[in-house]
């Protein structure tokens, strides 16, 4: 296990390095940020002076070496717009996003797992068809559209929740429910099909023949053996939420988190801030994947590293 973890950590370093270099290249291809930062009537001398101040007049390889050197020291420089350390800005925004994502994932798990188990226990019934169809619809719905519908109905029409903001449970519920819709559908589907497979397995038939109760077969046998698939999907959903889907929901609800920051950063072409954001997302996703892989050994003793 120790050797496996060390190898995965080395692999994580390579992935983060590759992603960071790719982002560096993309940010230098999409356009000149000087044109965004200065008014249209700015002179060529003013543009050249700002380009020199930002270090954009240096050869590309020099800029890349400086970027990589700073990255390994966790120093991405100062945000061009806010003039404070870029990593500090990102770390300040992360707690709000983690709160939103954690709440959404808890809601998804609490709803999807029971529904998936019920559908698997009653295969082919109307209930199974309804739950399966509902989960497929949930997967297909765009989160920003769901968020807008929730705002119009629950916030504007009924007045139960706030349309935007941060700080109370009434601010949190709607964006968390919106963000939970897609992972809820994913988890319900994977639970339903994994549990159905396990309930039809030979060991489940043997357990029933020996007099085991349905509850025991469902939870002591089938659910534990289906857990690896469920954990895998949960880890993928968590990474996907942090990597992109949260941004649309945060913008719709005015949630002051990491996703909103990314959208603003892209619009302003703030290279240091964007590079710090991508670095942190890559680190988080790599460690989520590592945690998921390690958990397999707990749920299935046959899996050993």
Automatic annotation (TrEMBL):
GO terms for cellular component: plasma membrane. Its main location: membrane. It is found in: Cell membrane. Residues 94-292 form the ABC transmembrane type-1 domain. InterPro entries: BPD_transp_1_N (IPR045621), MetI-like (IPR000515), MetI-like_sf (IPR035906). Keywords: Cell membrane, Membrane, Transmembrane, Transmembrane helix, Transport. It is a multi-pass membrane protein. GO terms for biological process: transmembrane transport. The chain crosses the membrane at residues 9-30, 100-121, 133-156, 168-188, 278-299. Pfam families: BPD_transp_1, BPD_transp_1_N. Belongs to the binding-protein-dependent transport system permease family. This is ABC transporter permease. It comes from Biomaibacter acetigenes.
């Amino acid at each position: 296990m120790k050797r496996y973890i060390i190898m995965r950590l080395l692999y994580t370093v390579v992935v983060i390095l590759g992603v960071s270099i790719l982002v560096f290249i993309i940010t230098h291809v999409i356009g000149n940020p000087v044109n965004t930062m200065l008014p249209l009537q700015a002179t060529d001398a003013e543009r050249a002076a700002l380009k020199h101040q930002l270090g954009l007049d240096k050869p590309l390889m020099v800029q890349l070496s400086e970027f990589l050197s700073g990255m390994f020291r966790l120093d991405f420089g100062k945000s061009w717009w806010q003039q404070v350390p870029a990593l500090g800005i990102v770390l300040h925004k992360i707690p709000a996003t983690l709160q939103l994502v954690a709440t959404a994932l808890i809601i998804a798990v609490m709803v999807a797992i029971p529904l998936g188990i019920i559908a698997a226990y009653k295969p082919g019934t109307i209930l199974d068809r309804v739950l399966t169809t509902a989960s497929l619809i949930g997967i297909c719905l765009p989160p920003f559209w769901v968020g807008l519908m929730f705002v119009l109905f629950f916030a504007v029409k009924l007045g139960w929740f706030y349309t935007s903001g941060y700080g109370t449970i009434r601010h949190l519920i709607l964006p968390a429910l919106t963000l939970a819709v897609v992972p809820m559908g994913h988890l319900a589907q994977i639970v339903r099909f994994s549990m159905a497979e396990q309930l039809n397995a030979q060991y489940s038939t043997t357990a029933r023949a020996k007099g085991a109760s349905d509850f025991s077969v469902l939870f002591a046998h089938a659910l534990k053996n289906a857990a690896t698939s469920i954990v895998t999907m949960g880890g993928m959903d968590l990474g996907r939420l942090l990597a992109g889907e949260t941004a649309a929901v945060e913008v719709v609800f005015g949630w002051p988190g990491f996703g909103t920051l990314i959208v603003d950063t892209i619009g302003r072409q703030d290279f240091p801030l964007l590079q710090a954001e991508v670095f942190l997302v890559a680190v988080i996703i790599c460690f989520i994947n590592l945690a998921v892989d390690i958990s397999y050994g707990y749920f299935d003793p046959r899996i050993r590293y």
